[in-house]
Amino acid sequence: MAKKVAVIGAGVSGLVSLKCCVDEGLEPTCFERTEDIGGLWRFKENVEDGRASIYQSVISNTSKEMSCFSDFPMPEDFPNFLHNSKLLEYFRIFAREFDLLKYIQFQTTVLSVRKHPDFSSSGQWEVVTESNGKKQSAVFDAVMVCSGHHILPHIPLDSFPGIEKFKGQYFHSRQYKHPEGFEGKHILVIGLGNSASDIAVELSKKAAQVFISTRHGSWVMSRISEDGYPWDMVLHTRFISMFRNVLSRFKIIRKWMMEQQMNRWFDHANYGLQPQNKHLMKEPVVNDDLPSRILYGAIKVKSRVIELTETSAIFEDGTVEEDIDVIVFATGYTFSFPFLEESVVKVKDNTVSLYKYMFPPHLEKSTLACIGFIQPLGSIFPTVELQARWATRVFKGLCTLPSEKTMMADTIKRNEKRIDLLPTLCG
């Protein structure tokens, strides 16, 4: 008898998890709280609680060639980098091709996922859902958590003294949809991730002035690399991977080469963007327009905000910008698993304790996996496919995980170590 698997969420991770379950002969049921598939990549004009939200202009940072699933290339007439509507179209085609919609229960919210009383021997889970005001409970042999991590906004207002006095408008980047309505404004964007950079660039075409405040700086890459090819097609090759592995023994050379490559497009120091720690850092920003908008003066790079007044922002370097109308907090998201007991997936300081970013290491049975809670340098879509393929094979017993001690040691090491996400060559 096929094992029953509960898949939570019908975004990208949920869809590919459904396919992998079917491929392995498992019996999946997907619970999706909204009326449609697509998750993060389905743009809606209004922000909805419990659902990821994107702005209208979002374009993929990775190319279609490197972002498609392993057995399903994107249509040839699609552009190399895809608007969110095109990506959603691809996921719809994918779902139809593999007949995945029949496994999805739409407008169904997962209220709780708890261990079955005999979990230590069966590894089963009791899943309680609600649809149209009616609660239901079912037992599953395994669970795949595909709910995403761009839902609960992180707004550290305590880090911005004076915010309570500020008379202008402020909101999290999750609430931003399009630049209309910001004409002639003086806008402060806090953060220097991909969303912050996209929003700052877009607003700078309508606003009187945009400021972007960064604590640590960031490397900025273009989608266009050598000879006009997409950056990830140039970067992610077997040769470069092999070369990077060889150079990993010579850290000084590797760091020097990485810095040289990252500054080939423009010298980050001249733009106020050079990371404080040039070698160990977060995910780089992919933005084709940010340097030129800074050159135009449409965007001004500022240091960390130390205080806000009724109308102005005071920065760490002592400068002050007056007449600020709007503050956009592009300060990321907080991991949240409201349907899980805290003991199942532990979150501390916005870090999740998961073996290889997937498996809770302390469970007696490896029957729960989190899919898509990772930020690779490159496309997340083939990454989540590999995660789903591994998880389903673990559920079937075809793959086994190491001991709890080994998994905990690996997880602690990963969480403590600031991983160098930038390879030696960046095209």
Automatic annotation (TrEMBL):
Essential cofactor(s): Mg(2+); FAD
Cross-referenced Gene3D superfamilies: FAD/NAD(P)-binding domain
Catalytic reaction list: hypotaurine + NADH + O2 + H(+) = taurine + NAD(+) + H2O; hypotaurine + NADPH + O2 + H(+) = taurine + NADP(+) + H2O; N,N-dimethylaniline + NADPH + O2 + H(+) = N,N-dimethylaniline N-oxide + NADP(+) + H2O; trimethylamine + NADPH + O2 = trimethylamine N-oxide + NADP(+) + H2O
Topology in membrane: Single-pass membrane protein
Free-text function comment from the UniProt entry: Broad spectrum monooxygenase that catalyzes the oxygenation of a wide variety of nitrogen- and sulfur-containing compounds including xenobiotics. Catalyzes the S-oxygenation of hypotaurine to produce taurine, an organic osmolyte involved in cell volume regulation as well as a variety of cytoprotective and developmental processes.
Similarity-based family: Belongs to the FMO family.
Name under which the protein is recorded: Flavin-containing monooxygenase
Native source species: Panthera pardus
